[in-house]
TrEMBL record:
Signal peptide: none annotated. The keyword Isomerase does not apply. Belongs to the alpha-acetolactate decarboxylase family. This is Alpha-acetolactate decarboxylase. Pathway: Polyol metabolism; (R,R)-butane-2,3-diol biosynthesis; (R,R)-butane-2,3-diol from pyruvate: step 2/3. NCBIfam families: acetolac_decarb. It comes from Liquorilactobacillus capillatus DSM 19910. Its EC number is 4.1.1.5. The lineage of its organism: Bacteria, Bacillati, Bacillota, Bacilli, Lactobacillales.
Length: 241
């Protein structure tokens, strides 16, 4: 007898790694339908770095390189994504907050954290700068080369949601050490990977995870055969992200 699926809010699910993007292993290896079995909140990118994803309340949005924001279908495929079932706990209200202040508050004034957590900020952003990469096609180039073909978007005094995933430095390569931020405007006029922001006023909530569920694309021959020892993973991820 099939029971009701339990939504475990202590688990951060990750498909793929940022390391596999470095040499250009950009083939989509999970569908959005599959990813949403593991969370109603998340971020990621499409095959060939096709735009930037932000999942809110179970709805997956894609911000593409033309500045469009749209809901993607179940068959949308991704090489990398994070997802979790939302259980954010309110911490504080931020005012006139830079990325540095945001980080200080989210880390609760510590220099770093040794566990994964997600941060959600809902409010008014006096400034936000995002990017979305132009979709590439096989044969894929490296992450560094592909990420140079990106579009930059800016907005002022806009309502929206910032979703951020924090990774401990120990896991740099599997993810990006520190904060990985995506944004979606309430009116869907702008979204994407966040390059800079300032929060005019917003409510910051946080969700801690005690478990990282790392899912790898073992049916993808390119991934299984690739020798990552030859890749400058840490430096390339730091530059690209």
């Amino acid at each position: 007898m099939e029971g009701k699926r339990i939504m475990k809010t202590n688990i951060l699910y990750q498909h793929g790694t940022l390391a596999l993007l470095v040499p250009g292993l950009l083939t989509g290896t999970i569908t959005m339908k599959e990813l949403l079995q593991h969370g109603d909140t998340g971020i990621g990118t499409g095959e060939g770095l096709d735009g930037e994803l932000i999942i809110l309340d179970g709805i997956p949005y894609q911000a593409d390189s033309l500045g469009n924001v749209k809901v993607v279908k179940d068959d949308f495929i991704m090489p990398f994504a994070n997802a979790n079932f939302a259980d954010f706990k309110f911490l504080t209200t931020l005012k006139d907050a830079t990325p540095a202040k945001f980080a200080t508050v989210a880390l609760q004034e510590k220099e770093n954290a040794n566990t994964f957590f997600a941060v959600q900020v809902k409010g008014i952003f006096s400034y936000v700068k995002t990017r979305a990469v132009v979709k590439s096609f096989p044969p894929f180039d490296t992450l560094e080369a592909t990420a140079q073909k990106q579009s930059i978007f800016e907005a002022h005094n806009i309502e929206g949601t910032l979703i951020s995933y924090y990774s401990p430095s120990l896991f740099h390569g599997a993810a990006v050490a520190g904060f990985h931020n995506h944004f979606l405007a309430a009116d869907h006029s702008i979204g994407g990977h966040v390059l800079d922001f300032k929060i005019a006023s917003g409510k910051l909530s946080r969700q801690l995870f005690d478990t990282l569920e790392q899912h790898l694309p073992i049916t993808n021959k390119e991934f299984m055969d690739h020798n990552f020892a030859k890749d400058n993973i840490a430096d390339v991820i730091s530059k690209a992200e």
